[in-house]
Amino acid sequence: MIEYNCRVCGFNIFPDEFWEDESPTYLICPCCGCESGNDDYKIDSIKQYRDIWISKGAKWFNPKEIPEDWHLEEQLEKIPTKFR
Ligand SMILES: [Zn+2]
Question: What spacing in Å lies between the alpha carbon of 76 and ligand 1's midpoint?
């Protein structure tokens, strides 16, 4: 299974991918800055990373990639249920 959505923030990085069949690509999420395979390996670290990221204002790691109609709440809805 290919995971296009960040486990931490839900950002969709298609056509790149964060995980494929439980193997991480070590890609850095342009939104929350999490590195797949490192920061999102365990549910505890996912939740911790997300809490800290949101508490600091949910700032973009790479602001050049912010979509024009970006809404944090809508994106968080795209986090797969098992990583919430
Ligand atoms: Zn992310």
Answer: 9
